[in-house]
Design brief:
- Helices cover 43% and strands 13% of the residues.
- By secondary structure, it is an alpha/beta fold.
- The strands form two sheets. An eight-stranded mixed sheet has the order 3-2-1-4-5-6-7-8, sandwiched between helices. The chain has a six-stranded parallel sheet with strand order 11-10-9-12-13-14.
- The protein contains 18 helices and 14 strands.
- Helix 1 packs across helix 3 and helix 11 runs antiparallel to helix 12.
- It has two domains: 198 residues, Rossmann fold (3-Layer(aba) Sandwich); 140 residues, Rossmann fold (3-Layer(aba) Sandwich), CATH 3.40.50.
- Bound molecules: nicotinamide-adenine-dinucleotide.
């Protein structure tokens, strides 16, 4: 099939490459010339494991191309909308200008029978509104919403082997011709038994925001327990292990730490609350305000702990922050708790050096006032305290004896509770975790 992917960021670039890998002829369209020229040269414009290799592999087949020109959508039968839906400035709601613009710009290039498939995360009701607009000029074009559940850092395998496919279509009928078309797009994962759920449009939109809200709630739940553990002298990692053994609860997403960030969870739960308010159902989601508040409190807590670790004042303290990305295996720094903590420490008088294996370039664009150092070894030198804030493998693997040779004071705050506290203490370090005695 010939497929268009509009918006080639973290979601769209991976989706385009994976659709080509599945055998389709794909054109990726983005307004950002820099991204399009990188992708055209088979180079990912951001770090995602396996994406560079996949781009090279599929571009050699001639099935994948990129363009800034929406006219290249002409001739495709399926058009995926993968543009951003960031938080509006100064408001909780989602900014839908990109989704609206992409849809509007696509309309002149559609043919009867074409299928528009939204993958961006949107407030419930958006798909029906867009379907109405599309129908006015292109009555024979179908609209579906097919939310995306990929995880950055695993995006290629999550796209090629999704754990479920959700198809939203007006009326929710499995018999709709558009369902058969999307089945052809996803023929390979469907053949291997990927569950496929056909729903109406609002349910499909809600599946995504509900899933993200659940995950955010789980993280904030364990972080609230970490606050309690701190107050009571208990250990949140043992608590998580113990409650996680109950398979109704599960151990995943129960790691207490500096909280969630990134380009999805924070803005998605806020947009969800805003949309619930518009629908007159705001009471149903007031708990998400608490989830958000617990999450943001983690950042303040880490700054407080860092101050304690530095003997009561941050002024002039040389602090090395290990990790800038919002999670390991990604260079994404959108709403990264690590960077936000680094910036707060700097504002309070610390001399902060940030290091990260992949995200320094993005971090420097967001927070140019911070000092960045590529080499971990150099970053450790003469530090008065270390803060481990993104759990990259190389930080998990740090040897406390070797590290102590570089720093000026052996103090570490493990913001992800991933280090072996006893090992670090045995090597002479003052070790602090979150919610751990
Ligand atoms: P992103 O900012 O990385 O990418 C968005 C891209 O859309 C940018 O490259 C931008 O230039 C492009 N764009 C904007 N307007 C356009 C237009 N009119 N025409 C063509 N291109 C346009 O964002 P992302 O992380 O890829 O997220 C995209 C959507 O997918 C969001 O709704 C997000 O919530 C959702 N999502 C993201 C992830 C993820 O892990 N990143 C996972 C699931 C869902």
């Amino acid at each position: 099939m010939r497929i268009t992917v509009i918006g080639c960021g973290y979601l769209g670039a991976v989706h385009a490459a994976c659709m080509a890998k599945l055998g389709h002829e794909v054109v990726g369209i983005d307004v950002d010339e820099r991204k399009v020229s990188a992708l055209s040269a088979a180079s990912a414009p951001f770090f995602e494991p396996g994406l560079d290799a996949l781009l090279k592999e599929v571009q050699e087949t001639g099935r994948l191309s990129f363009s800034t020109d929406m006219a290249s959508a002409k001739g495709s039968s399926v058009h995926f909308i993968c543009v951003g839906t960031p938080q509006k400035k100064g408001e909780n709601g989602a900014d839908l200008t990109y989704v609206d613009a992409a849809t509007r710009d696509l309309l002149p290039y559609l043919s009867p029978g074409d299928l528009i498939v939204g993958k961006s995360t949107v407030p419930v009701g958006t798909a029906a509104r867009l379907a109405g607009i599309i129908e006015q000029t292109q009555p024979a074009v179908h609209t579906m919403w097919n939310p995306e559940f990929l995880r950055e850092g695993h995006a290629v395998s999550d796209t090629l082997h999704p754990d479920r496919l959700v198809y939203g279509i007006a009326g929710g009928s499995e018999e709709h011709i558009a369902v058969q078309v999307l089945d052809r797009v996803y023929a390979t994962p469907l053949e291997t038994g990927t569950p496929r759920l056909v729903t109406d449009l609002p349910t499909a939109e809600l599946v995504k925001t509900a899933a993200n809200s659940f995950l955010a709630t789980k993280i904030s739940f364990i972080n609230a327990m970490a606050e309690l553990c701190d107050a009571a002298g208990a250990d949140v990692t043992m608590l998580a292990d113990a409650i996680g053994l109950d398979d109704r609860i599960g151990r995943k997403f129960l790691n207490a730490g500096i909280g969630f960030g990134g380009g999805c969870l924070p803005k998605d739960i806020r947009a969800f609350m805003a949309r619930a308010g518009e629908l007159g159902a705001d009471q149903a989601l007031t708990f998400l305000r608490e989830v958000d508040a617990i999450n943001m409190r983690r950042r303040t807590r880490v700054v407080e702990l860092a101050r304690e670790l530095c003997g009561g004042s941050l002024l002039g303290q040389r602090i090395t922050v290990l990790g800038a990305a919002f999670k390991p295996e990604s260079d994404d720094v959108r709403d990264s708790p690590a960077l936000s903590i680094a910036a707060q420490l700097q504002l309070q008088g610390a001399v902060v050096t940030v290091t990260d294996p992949k995200a320094l370039h993005n971090a420097a664009r967001r927070f140019p006032e911070l000092h960045y150092e590529e080499s971990t070894e150099v970053a450790l030198q003469r530090a008065d305290a270390l803060l481990l804030l993104t759990e990259w493998q190389e930080y998990r693997d740090l040897d406390p004896y070797e590290a102590s040779a570089f720093v000026s004071s052996s103090k570490i705050l493990d913001g992800r509770n991933i280090l072996d506290a006893s090992k670090w203490r045995a090597a002479g370090w003052t070790y602090r975790g979150l919610g751990r005695p």
